[in-house]
Amino acid sequence: MRAETFRRVLAGRRKSLLGWAIGIFAMMLLIVLSYPAVRDQPSLTDLLEDYPDFVQQILGLGGGLDLTSPAGYLNSQVFANTLPIIFLIFLIAFAARETVGEERDKTMNLALSHPIRRERFVLEKFAAMALTGLGLAAVSALTLIAFGPLVDMDLGLAGYVGATLSVYLIAMVFATLAFALGASTGSRPVAFGVTSALAVAMYILWGLAPLVDAIKGLDRLNPFYWGLAGTPILNGLQVGNALLLVALVVILAGAAVAGFRRRDIGT
User: Fold this and answer.
1) DSSP string covering 5-37, please?
2) Which region, left, alpha or beta, applies to residue 170 given φ > 0 means left and ψ of -120 to 50 means alpha?
3) What is the tens place of the pLDDT at every residue in 153-189?
4) Are the CB atoms for 70 and 148 separated by under 8 Å?
5) 182 near 190, Cβ under 8 Å?
6) Model confidence at 139: pLDDT above 70
7) Contact, 61 vs 48, CB < 8 A?
8) φ, ψ for residue 60 (rounded to 5)?
9) Which is it for the CA torsion 212, 215, 217, 221, positive or negative?
10) Pick from 75, 85, 101, 203: most CB atoms within 10 A?
11) What is the structure's pLDDT at 198?
């Protein structure tokens, strides 16, 4: 029964994962093919320059990025909003379902009746979540790499992969938090609701940080800051920042294991 839980989770997600992959492919392709319409409108740059820093940050145009440039366009249309939202919705829902769903459906005891330790049971579910999320990230990056050159949008492998992995790691921090909360409490409202609210709050705070002096220091506690700092779409993956996010994921995964081990699983 090697990795039976891992395989079972992936098998149960095949159809939904295919649907998500097709949706991401179609969305990325549409965004890429829409670039020429934006590139040929330089007046958009002048218009956005008058927007406050908060709006420019939320739009992914901080650090002097230009909407009509390939990097500015992709950062604003993909990496600062669309892709984080997609990953967060998919991964947080995945985490809540895999830690709470079986108990809610009264099948958790059956799953645990197999000769498998609780620690391994949780970690195999976590590995399935991480792998499926990484698969969707690969679909996104490969679509941009394949079709970007068709519209003179060739930012290089490092930019596409670095920006995509950075966003994926941001989402994984929140998803693993949801995983830990679900594994520890068995409550879907706590796992899904609390984590989703926190993700929205952190995103807003990330946008407000350039404007509000009182929270400029607090943005160092924000996964969005570490994931998007250094403009990965231009400079590739920021290794130090990525390692910090990975460390947070590992810590939260450990908390999920510890919380699930202590729980009294209902029938």
Assistant:
1) HHHHHHHHTHHHHHHHHHHHHHHHHHHHHTHHH
2) alpha
3) 888 899 999 999 999 999 999 999 999 999 999 888 9
4) yes
5) yes
6) yes
7) yes
8) 80, 25
9) negative
10) 75
11) 96
